[in-house]
Amino acid sequence: MTTAARPTFEPARGGRGKGEGDLSALSKQYSSRDLPGHTKIKYRQPTQDAPEEVRARDFRRELEERERVAAREKTRERGPRGWHGRRNALSMTHCALNFTKNLWRNM
Description:
It comes from Oreochromis aureus (Israeli tilapia). The protein has helices at about 50-55, 60-80, 90-105. The protein is mainly α and about 110 residues long. The chain has a domain at about 40-75. The longest helix is centred in the middle third of the chain and has 20 residues, at about 60-80. The chain starts with about 50 loop residues before the first helix and ends with a helix.
């Protein structure tokens, strides 16, 4: 059996030696982590959705307007229906080859 499994008859006690009674008297240095932080509360500015401003807004109208703008931009990017954008030379060649192949197959 090891000695770690046995109880100590004389437990270690601090505070009896020179300078061990008051630990704050040992040093006047302190860590920056011991300093208080976040000591000020930030308040909302008038343009940061104060409760008075929120009550006066019509969120449904704003949302519908944003959705209309997004849908308009999406259709502008995609183009009109049935239009697949510009075709590059490779896709045009591929198209022509398929057309020719289908012509020979149907003869």
